[in-house]
Design goal:
By secondary structure, the chain is mostly helical. The protein has ten helices and no strands.
């Protein structure tokens, strides 16, 4: 039974990404670094809920989101942020805001794929298949053998579907609604981010 007084991260994520989707779908989208980093920070607890299998992803994602949040105090929009890195010739350097943005985008993509798999696997209390499929689709091509092995071992320690719902303080039916809402809202956001990189010939597979 969900506790109505406790935190419900799925609802916050759903709301924040609906707002982001509206922004990127406007005729002249200007996505502020502050709005983007705040929405992304709401996703962070999800990685923590998945246990040791996604510990590396959680640490990496949280660190990158925090970097963007700090950058928001001196940079207005994602476009301005990228243009500054391009001008400084530091796009691919470790620690650059643009490089960190790409890593955060990958995290958003991972959660989208995971939610799609969870929704599709209705009736199965195990998260191993949804988590494995989404990891293979998004993160695996960018991880070395050591991390891939650690993730594979960690898959055995994933929470069950019901345990995840308890951690998120949601009932099954409501959780599916909010997961689908994130899937729908994150799609144009991720497409917008991809276009920021591709339109500047920066690529997205590095």
């Amino acid at each position: 039974m969900a506790d109505s007084n406790a935190e419900r991260p799925l609802r916050k994520i759903s709301t924040a990404f609906k707002e982001l989707a509206a922004t990127v779908s406007s005729p002249s989208p200007e996505v502020s670094v502050a709005q983007f980093s705040h929405a992304c920070s709401l996703v962070s607890p999800l990685f923590g809920c998945l246990g040791i299998a996604f510990k590396f992803a959680q640490m990496d994602y949280v660190a990158k989101v925090e970097d963007l949040a700090k950058a928001s105090s001196s940079v207005s929009t994602l476009v301005v942020m990228m243009e500054r890195d391009i001008e400084a010739n530091c796009v691919r350097k470790a620690g650059s805001h643009t490089r960190n943005l790409l890593r955060v985008k990958r995290g958003l993509d991972m959660v989208k794929a995971l939610f799609e798999e969870i929704i599709a696997s209705e009736g199965d209390n195990s998260l191993k298949d949804p988590a494995s499929k989404s990891y293979d689709q998004v993160f695996r091509p960018h991880h070395g053998w050591v991390i891939q092995k650690a993730v594979a071992l960690g898959m055995c320690a994933l929470p069950t579907r019901s345990q995840l719902l308890t951690m998120l303080n949601e009932e099954e039916a409501e959780a599916k609604i909010h997961m689908q809402s994130y899937v729908n809202a994150s799609a144009p956001v991720i497409a917008y981010l991809d276009n920021l990189f591709l339109s500047r010939q920066l690529g997205i597979d590095w």
